[in-house]
Amino acid sequence: MASNEAAEVKEEEEEEEREDATMAKLGSYGGEVRLVVDGEESAAEEIMLLWGIQQPTLSKPNSFVSQSSLKLSIDSCGHSLSILQSPSSLGTPGVTGSVMWDSGIVLGKFLEHSVDSGMLVLQGKKIVELGSGCGLVGCIAALLGGEVILTDLPDRLRLLRKNIEANMKQFCLRGSVTATELIWGDDADPELVKPMPDYVLGSDVVYSEGAVEDLLETLGQLCGPNTTIFLAGELRNDAILEYFLEAAMNKFRIGRIDQNLWHPDYRSNRVVLYVLVKK
Ligand SMILES: C[S@@+](CC[C@H](N)C(=O)[O-])C[C@H]1O[C@@H](n2cnc3c(N)ncnc32)[C@H](O)[C@@H]1O
Known about the structure:
The chain is of the alpha/beta class. The protein has a single domain, classed as Rossmann fold (3-Layer(aba) Sandwich), CATH 3.40.50. It contains 8 helices and 11 strands. It has helices spanning 3-21, 42-54, 102-116, 136-143, 157-168, 190-193, 209-222, 238-248, and strands at residues 23-24, 33-35, 71-76, 79-84, 126-130, 147-152, 176-181, 199-203, 228-234, 252-256, 271-278. The strands form 2 sheets. Strands 1-2-10-11-9-8-5-6-7 form a 9-stranded mixed β-sheet, with helices on both faces. A hairpin with a 2-residue loop joins strand 3 and strand 4 (79-84). Bound molecules: S-adenosylmethionine.
């Protein structure tokens, strides 16, 4: 082998080794995830990488949702779900969960795909969802056999409960589903933490720098040594996501789930999916 060819092979092998070193399984998820390795600049590097690879601004926002409709229909777990939305409430300051967001669809379908492909077991597991909004993600988790508690701000529970009623009552559920109030940063009710959840879910919950500290406080309260957190985020604001990652790294090990592990029909360059476990 010519010396430059040998050098190329060595370089490729070293690159593969570097790749392997950053891939690992985290928590109860069976897929290998890309570790966001601790370090002073690592949150900034993650953001540069994400925006560089996915170029989110070049993709269409709201690919899987129509936020002006009163109803969003989606098939999941062999059922046809019909999620009620309240587009007019979106204009009210502070109200964001009255319509669905792409990251919620991506996370719900990711859970379904992961269970179907044997990467995840939700049957009989205690699952808490944060900032449930219209409730699709938690409903899918319940269809997959989870004992799910959906949570949101007090004035958001009406729509959430309507959607649970409209979608879950008609099915012979493998799991269970309820909704309760949880304001990030407040002490979580005993029903949420005793016992600690097996899984905590959140989609599009990192969108305001002011809420990051409270959100992390709540994630810390809900996360025991055997809890796995899945967070799906919208790539709209690099500064807020970087701020979240930087702060989250103090308490959690973080891995990014590559798109090839998502549901094949629900992939978007404007969405990112992380798994977190307590350090
Ligand atoms: C952008 S919406 C996402 C809704 C839903 N997860 C989805 O993906 O469609 C953010 C959700 O977080 C909730 N939220 C915001 N701040 C909160 C807080 N301090 N405590 C609890 N929930 C909060 C909102 O009410 C809203 O339902």
